[in-house]
Structure formats: structure tokens, C-alpha cells
Design a protein that fits this description.
Largest sheet: 2 strands, antiparallel
Number of helices: 15
Strand order of the largest sheet: 1-2
CATH topology: Hypothetical protein af1432
Low-confidence stretches: none
Shape: globular
Distance between the termini: 37 Å
CATH class: Mainly Alpha
Radius of gyration: 18 Å
Length: 281
């Protein structure tokens, strides 16, 4: 089976709702379903998060990061962290856990290396999107963080299936049109559905897949596009059409109010680095 046939097979399965998740991902998706419930109280969320030691540690760490702890007051309990972050940020953390579980769900070292690099790219995009949303485009920063975390989830799912389709991801950077034309939208949308990603976030990510960056940026899609271009680690899976290289990204600048994008990025460097570091834990 060649790569196009493999893409079409996986996309057809995804289109029918036949998504093959590892057991660990299934458990995390059930946790996400509980957090998405509008009746989920923060105390219930704290109990659910506390039941997963790794997620509990990450929750406390992100609550103490510069991005969420501007008062400089450290906390050490899951309950206090949940109250500081709120349920929406917890949804982003669980989504991050799901994405990373997808990337590490196969035994091949080469595929795991691709997944690790893809997560490094994703974490940079998410951290940058949160700051750009808050300081530049003024869209909801929690939504931007979540969108940045899940924007490559279709590619992570593809990696989780690569062991079943030898050669599936070989040369994808050199031939990104195969993925864009034969899998990204169908597979991505199906995984978004499983993760209960809101429709407006899905539309913004789809615009990112095919759109061109607008300067100055205004929408959530623009926010993601700019963050993707500014990320110092490129995706190892494919190059987005019109994407800027990490080297060229250093030249992106424009006026923002009385300042510039570059000035905002310089002011926010520690915040972005702190959030990225927590996501990489």
C-alpha cells in the first residue's frame, strides 16, 4: 500500500468515526469529557486531576508559571492550582496530555523522535499563541492556548497509526501536499470531534492549515498562523503552505499600538519560555 492509499484508508476510517486510540488516550478523553461538562465544578475537577499523578504535577507547575502566577505567590496543592487556572485551562492541559500520549504510543524510535519534535513545535506555538492573543490580537488567550495545543492533533494521530502503515510518514516534509490533500482535514476533524474541540476553534485551525498570515493579525486563525511562523522549531511532518522559516521569522515585525510586535515578544520572552517549559514536562 502506498502512502496515498494509506492516507485514504485512515481518513476513511476516521470519517466513519473509527478512531483507534491507545488505552491511555481513551482514559484521558473520558477525563476531558468530564471537564467539558458545563456542570463540572472546580472541586470536582481538582479531584479528577488529582487522580492522575503526572497531570496533577503538570497542573501545579503551570499554575506556578510566569504566565499564570503574576503575583509571584507559589502554590503546592492541586486544589489551589485548579482554582487559579480554572476549568478551561485544565481542558488545555488534558488536551496536551492526550496529544503527547498519541505521539508516544508506538515503539519505533524514529517515530517517537518525530513525535517529540512535533510536540516541541506544538508547545512553542501554544505558548506564543497565548501571549499574542493577550497582547496583540485580543482574542481569548485561554482559547488561543488550547487551539495551539491541538492544532497538530491530526498529525499526532497519524503518527500513532504509522506502525500499521510502514513508510507512511517518510518524506512528508518534502511532499506536504499528500497530507494536506488526502488526510489533514478529514483526520483532523474526526480527532477534534473525539476531543470535543469547539467548532469555532476547529474553523480557526482549518483557516490556519490553508490560510496566509494577515498583518496585523486580528482573528484566532491569524493568531495561530503568526505563532506558527514565529515558532523556533518547525513541524517535522509538513510545511504549511506559505509558512515562514524559523530564520525568516526573526524579521517579522509590525506596529502594535504605541509599540511593535518585536518589543512585545521581548517583554514576554520569560513568560513564553516558562509556559513552553511547563508544556514540555
Amino acid at each position: 500500500m502506498d502512502r496515498i492509499e494509506a492516507f485514504n484508508t485512515i481518513a476513511a476510517q476516521a470519517g466513519r468515526g473509527e478512531l483507534a486510540f491507545p488505552a491511555s488516550v481513551d482514559a484521558s478523553i473520558r477525563l476531558q469529557q468530564a471537564l467539558v461538562d458545563p456542570d463540572c465544578h472546580v472541586d470536582t475537577a481538582a479531584r479528577l486531576i488529582g487522580a492522575d499523578p503526572l497531570l496533577a504535577a503538570r497542573t501545579v507547575a503551570i499554575a506556578n508559571s510566569v504566565a499564570f502566577n503574576r503575583s509571584g505567590t507559589p502554590i503546592s496543592s492541586v486544589r489551589a492550582a485548579v482554582h487559579r487556572l480554572g476549568v478551561r485551562t485544565l481542558q488545555s492541559l488534558v488536551a496536551a496530555l492526550i496529544v503527547r500520549q498519541l505521539g508516544s504510543a508506538q515503539p519505533d524510535a524514529g517515530l517517537r523522535a518525530k513525535a517529540d519534535r512535533l510536540w516541541a513545535h506544538t508547545a512553542h506555538v501554544a505558548a506564543l499563541a497565548q501571549v499574542i492573543a493577550r497582547r496583540v490580537t485580543h482574542v481569548d488567550p485561554d482559547t488561543a492556548l488550547f487551539a495551539g495545543i491541538v492544532h497538530e492533533v491530526g498529525a499526532f494521530y497519524l503518527l500513532s497509526r504509522a506502525a500499521d502503515f510502514p513508510g507512511l510518514v517518510d518524506g512528508m516534509v518534502e511532499a506536504p501536499d499528500d497530507w494536506i490533500a488526502h488526510g489533514e482535514t478529514t483526520i483532523g476533524r474526526s480527532v477534534f470531534g473525539a476531543l470535543m474541540v469547539p467548532e469555532h476553534v476547529v474553523r480557526a485551525i482549518e483557516a490556519m492549515w490553508t490560510g496566509m498570515r494577515a498583518l496585523p493579525p486580528e482573528t484566532l486563525g491569524d493568531t495561530l498562523l503568526l505563532a506558527d511562523d514565529l515558532a523556533p522549531v518547525a513541524s517535522p511532518m509538513h510545511a504549511r503552505p506559505g509558512a515562514t522559516t524559523p530564520q525568516a521569522a526573526r524579521t517579522i515585525d509590525f506596529a502594535v499600538g504605541d509599540g511593535t510586535l518585536q518589543a512585545i515578544l521581548d517583554e514576554s520572552r520569560v513568560e513564553v519560555q516558562s509556559l513552553h517549559a511547563v508544556l514540555m514536562l
